[in-house]
Write a sequence for this structure.
């Protein structure tokens, strides 16, 4: 397995729309394993392939954050949603920022598993929120896009500062983002 580089906002590659997975082969299995390793190393609970610059519809989630509940959703589609709530989110691609966004907290998802078998599940709570966040990534959207203009400008300035600090201290250590937020995805 290998650690992959996580793209950081405002990298334009985060805006790429991911393509559906058609081949369930060894390359896909390796990508999924690497995504989980990368996500755990970054102490996140979700990661979309878009964030590691692979533009396929693959989402890795483990809401336990420690290897207890790994779940992969390939070509995921939300087919029903309810119970809109305000939830605090952060993102491995937007270090040091968290904010409240509106998400559905109960969703029904159609997807494929890592072997290509169909999955039809209703999920709720953190898993539902995380799925919404990751499916946004596959469409080139970030949680900060849901924020108001002033907040988005602040996030952009902050990202520029973090980016220049990283360049100045290269090679960068693993993300020194210690917000303590556990919903990083
Ligand atoms: Ni994210």
């Amino acid at each position: 397995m290998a650690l992959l580089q996580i793209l950081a906002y405002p990298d334009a590659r985060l805006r790429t729309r991911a393509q559906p997975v058609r081949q369930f082969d060894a390359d896909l299995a390796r990508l999924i394993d690497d995504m989980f390793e990368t996500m755990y190393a970054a102490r996140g609970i979700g990661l979309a392939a878009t964030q590691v610059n692979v533009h396929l519809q693959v989402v890795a989630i483990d809401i336990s954050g420690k290897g207890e509940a790994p779940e992969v959703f390939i070509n995921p589609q939300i087919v029903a949603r309810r119970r809109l709530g305000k939830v605090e989110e952060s993102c491995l691609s937007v270090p040091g920022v968290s904010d409240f966004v509106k998400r559905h907290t109960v969703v029904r998802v159609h997807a494929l598993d890592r072997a290509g078998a169909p999955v039809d599940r209703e999920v709720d709570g953190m898993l539902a929120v995380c799925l919404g966040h990751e499916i946004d990534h596959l469409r080139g959207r970030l949680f900060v896009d849901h924020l108001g203009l002033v907040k988005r400008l602040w996030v952009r300035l902050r990202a520029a500062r973090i980016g220049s600090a990283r360049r100045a201290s290269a090679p960068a250590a693993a993300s020194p983002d210690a917000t303590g937020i556990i919903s990083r995805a």
Observations:
- The mean pLDDT is 89.
- The pocket of nickel (II) ion is lined by residues 91-93, 133, 137, 185 (CB under 6 Å).
